[in-house]
Amino acid sequence: MKITCNEAVKNLIDYLHRELGNIERKKIDEHLEKCYKCCDKFEFEEKLSDIICKQGGDETCPKRLKSNIIKLINEVE
Amino acid sequence: MSSTTRGIYSNHEEKVRAFNEEAVSHMDALYRTALRTTRNDKDAEDLVQSTYLKAFKSFHQFKPGTNCKAWMFRIMTNLYINNYQKKARMPLNLSLDDMEDFYLYNQLALGTAGEKKSNVEEEFLSGILDSEVKSAIEKLPYEFKITVILADIEGFRYKEIADIIGCPIGTVRSRLSRGRKLLEKYLWNYAKKRDYVKENSK
To answer: Contact, B183 vs B102, CB < 8 A?
Structure first.
């Protein structure tokens, strides 16, 4: 069953987060294959998601804090 | 429940060992989330430490085999709300409903109207700075920020996020949608500020 651009866009957030059922996801994929505009936009948002994921939180916990926590836990009670 | 409060662990060492196995590997994830929410190293360290101490004390309540990372995040978000957020809590007065989808994409398209370069979006995305992504996330109102972090950085499912922050799944979805729109707006403004993109005449 075909869907419109508006219907595809309405599901963007669920699509990006892989929260759609197989049938719903397939409907959007089919639309994206045919609609250049939506395809372009969805790809852009997917790439932006990658950037948010990779660049938004790349810090690691300081070693000092880590060992301090482990020490504190051992000392509890 | 009360019969299990003494724990399923026969001694302290056993509890420590089980806790280390389950919980210690999530320290990086909790720390980077704490950095984004508290916005400074010292508070982030305190928050992570309190989270681990609290988690260890309540470890008898954790059901082995369930998602320990989600359980730890629930403890940390509750601690944050109770200890850090209290004074800074403000009502959400943002009118985001009229904000457009694909804000960034549309801004970029405006600038290239007529002579559409195929790689303009690609170029823009590859030039976004780490510091801008971090600031943009930190600038989000807390409710949006924590939801975006849990979904887009930590990879939790809607259902898990709903459990962690204690809200309906529909709220998770709408916060992600609105959070994304705001984030795109902030990223655009940062790029404009350092003359990476120009404000479009149209």
So the answer is: no
Does A48 reach chain B within 8 Å, measured CB to CB? yes
Q: Are residues B9 and B76 in the same domain?
A: yes
Helices (H), B58-157: 68-80, 103-111, 120-127, 130-139, 142-148
Tokens of B187: 């990223």
CB contact under 8 A, B56 and A76: yes
Give the nearest partner residue to B125 out of A51, A61, A69, using CB atoms.
Answer: A51
Write out the residue range of the structural domain in which residue B131 sits: 103-193
What pTM was estimated for this model as a whole?
Answer: 0.91
Q: Is residue B171 part of a domain?
A: yes
pLDDT digits (tens, 9 = 90+) for B5-24: 446 788 888 999 999 999 99
Are B74 and B31 in a shared domain?
Answer: yes
Question: Looking at the domain assignment, is residue B94 inside a domain?
Answer: no
Asked if B48 lies within 8 A of A12 by C-beta distance, the reply is no
Provide the ipTM: 0.95
